[in-house]
Every structure is written in C-alpha cells, then in structure tokens.
Amino acid sequence: MMGLNDATPELLTQIEAAIGPKGLRAPGVDDLTEPRGIFKGRAASVIRPSNSAEVSKVMEICHAAQVGVIPLGGGTGLTGGRSLEIGALPVLLSLERMSAIRAVDAAANTMVTEAGAILQNVQTAAEAEDRLFPLSLASQGSAQIGGVLSTNAGGVNVLRYGNARNLCLGLEVVLADGRIWHGLRGLHKDNTGYDIRDLMIGAEGTLGIITAAVLQLFPRPAQQLAAWIAVPNPASALQLFTLMSAALGHSISAFELIDQTGMSFLSETGVMTPPAHLPASPWIVLLDCGAASGDALSSQVETALAEAFEQNLCTDALISQNAAQRDMFWQIRETIPAANRRIGAVSSHDISLPLAAIPKFIETARAAIDPGLRLNCFGHLGDGNLHFNIFPPKGAKRSDFAHMTKDVQRLVYDLVAEMGGSFSAEHGIGRLKLDELQHYGDPVKLAMMRAIKTALDPRGILNPGAVIPL
Ligand SMILES: Cc1cc2nc3c(=O)[nH]c(=O)nc-3n(C[C@H](O)[C@H](O)[C@H](O)COP(=O)(O)OP(=O)(O)OC[C@H]3O[C@@H](n4cnc5c(N)ncnc54)[C@H](O)[C@@H]3O)c2cc1C
Known about the structure:
alpha+beta; five-stranded antiparallel sheet; four-stranded mixed sheet; about 35% helix; binds flavin-adenine dinucleotide
C-alpha cells in the first residue's frame, strides 16, 4: 500500500465544489472521541454526502489525492474503529444525511434503508407495518444501520434471529475508487459467485462505504414475556438453557446471564435502584420469549420452570405479567454497562466460547485473577458471548490498577484461545484489538484479509489502520 497524504484545504474545496457547501462541516468533539474515551481521532473535516452518487464523487477525489477516509456512523463503536490518532490527516465521511427509510415490504418481510438510518428508527418503521426488526442494542438510539452492519453487531436477540449479518439481504457499497456496487436486492437465494455482501459486513469500513441495505424483517410475536430467574451458578444456568431450549424451542429470543456484582454496581453508582422484590442470587438468568398467537407461552414457561426447580437448576423466578414488567427486567440488564462505565474497568473482554466451556472458563479465569479485583461477568449466555469485565476494589480507582491491564487481558485471552473461543465476539477489531488479532488470528486468514484489502483498496485510503495495521 502507498503512503497517504494529509487532507488539505485545497482537497476540501474540491469536495465542496463536487457536493456543495452543505456537504462539509467542522468536526465536533463527539465526532472525534468515542464512548469509552480510549481513542481521540483527528480529521480535517466531516464530509456529509446526501446520496450514493455524492459518496462516489468524494471517494474518487480522495482516491486520486491518496487521502484517508474514515466512515462515521453513530459513533457508538467500542473499539476505536473510527478514531485515527496517527499518520496523515484523514477526513471523516458521515452518513448522517442519508437516513431515509425508503420502503417497507410487509409481505416480503423486507425493508430498504439508507445507511445513516438510526437503528431505533428502523425498528419503529418496521413496527408501524406490524413487523419486527429484531436487532437490539443499548446504543440503538444512536447507532446507524451502516455502522451496525460494518461491525456485524450482535445484541440481545442473536440467539433467535442471528446477528446483523443474518439480518441483511442486500447492500449498496461505494468502493475506495468511487465505483458503486449495486447489490441492493432482497433475494434469499443468489449463488452467483463470491458473497461480496458478507465480505462488506463486519469489514469496519476498511473495504467500502455501505450506503444502503435491504434488511430482513419478521412477523411480530403476538405474545412476549420475560422471566427473572435466580440460579446458583453458571453451570446451572447452562443446564437451565438446555432445559428451556428443549421446552420452548425457537420461542427463546434471549438468554442473558447477570452477575450479582453487576446488580450491586447499579446501586453503588446510583444509576438505578432495582426493585427489592426481584429474586436475588449470585447469578441471574434473564429469559425472553416470543410466540405467535394461540400458543400458551406463559404456561409453557411455567411448566419448564417447575421442572427446573425440581432439578435444582433455579432457586426463585418471576415471570413478567405485563409489558411494563418485561421492560423493567430489560432496563436493569441494559443499564449494567452504564454502571460499569461509572466504576471504570481495569480490563473489559467481549469474548465468546463454546457453550459447554463457559462454566469452566468463568471458574478458571476467576481463580487466576488477583482476588482483590472485582469481576462482573454478564452477557448473552445463550449464544456463548460473555462480557467478562474486571474492576478495581470498591472505593479504589481504575488508574491505580492500570499496570495490571495487559497481564489480565493476556490471561483471559490465552484461556479463551485454549478453550476454542474468540477474543472479540461482538465489537470487532477496530484499532483496540489489532495486537490480539495478530497474536491469536490464524496466519492464513490474516494473509487472506490483507490480500482482499489490497485488491479492493490498493491505496489503503479506507479507514487506514483499522482491522489491518498500518
Ligand atoms: C452502550 C452501548 C451498548 C452497546 N451494545 C452492543 C451490543 O450489545 N452488541 C454489539 O454488537 N455492539 C454493541 N455496542 C457497540 C456499537 O453500538 C455497535 O458496534 C454499533 O454497531 C456501531 O454502530 P455506529 O453506527 O455507532 O458505528 P460507528 O461507531 O460510527 O462505526 C463503527 C465502525 O463501522 C464503520 N462504519 C460506520 N458506518 C459505516 C458505513 N456506512 N460504511 C462502512 N463503514 C462504516 C466505522 O468506520 C467504524 O469502523 C454498544 C455500544 C454502546 C455505546
């Protein structure tokens, strides 16, 4: 790849002439910082094209000038994917003006949307046509469809509906040199060579700019409920998952594990006071189910829970009686990351493991970590994805333990690798996990990734330094 040049005032003038004065704005603090404050990016300007033809013009200009272009969605990514701190000065390319939801086809269960559409607006538009777009994240009020697809985001419903990749049928993408790939089709079957759509999803803006997508929708479940279930330990939680899966099949949309530490962080930080009547235990499972009308979902869950009590897999349980109670369970779950951020993690790990390995992993990792540190282990147990986060003792500051971060990470990731898991389940590589990818990644896969990057972006202008080191 070639060396890049700074984005100069002359380049910005050229872009303005091509897409008009509304197409540029000065970068604000929110454009340059990211949620965890680990990275601080730089950019000469935020370029805001209003359609894919304008994206194409911008890319042509930046390609000719060999200037880095960093796609910007809602800015909620957690791995520094849109924050370039070193090297030539890039531009940010924001999809904020391309937020239209173009069409919802309820009969075909599809939606065509521009990449800048906010996830929550996509969910609402689907709901207006009595359809469900099931991708659900705590950041859905800001995250955009382009960002969600570029990070192959997961969230709480992966168990039943899959991650972003599984919810996308077609894409429109502008390549590094400005060419537009028109792959905006809603076909379920299309075996016509390499799957470019799947290549672009999860590429974190390093292979192309996603400008529009065809999304997969679903009928909305007529009945939905959640259960707050006290379990003695992760092994029981896993056995409970097996039991519930056998009893409820595809009705289960989420099976979340919550650590008592996470619950105590809510009150310690004051972000939320969970109701006192909730079953308490060292570990909680939040089960969420949905079914078509006619099925007696509530009685099915009750029967399965009775069986679980008999097998000593749970000690107490509360089934939601209405939508407000179900929302309250979820609000607790979704507020835990905010409490985590207030406490400040010494080290956070977004990992996945084969299901059977999870109890052993938690036990072994816990025993190996300095007993003075606190562990908050929570996440999407049903799909094998845990957020395994380590915190300072109560009252202590994260900065006093910063010297331990690297060692804790190595310990956790080595154990994950040994047990056949992944060091990045949901949040991607960005710039945060470049070293881990080089260390734990399969060398043949890494060579293929570099070859693909060179083929599609020979000048290396697309999100330089993300996923593939500079
Ligand atoms: C509170 C909170 C909770 C979260 N929960 C989850 C969760 O449960 N599961 C999960 O997977 N993630 C989660 N995330 C992470 C984040 O929300 C997701 O990664 C989200 O998909 C990012 O979308 P975004 O629009 O904010 O992208 P950004 O942060 O703007 O960008 C992310 C990456 O995608 C690239 N990109 C953005 N738009 C485009 C585009 N149109 N074309 C090409 N590349 C593009 C960027 O360059 C960057 O590399 C959470 C984040 C927060 C802050």
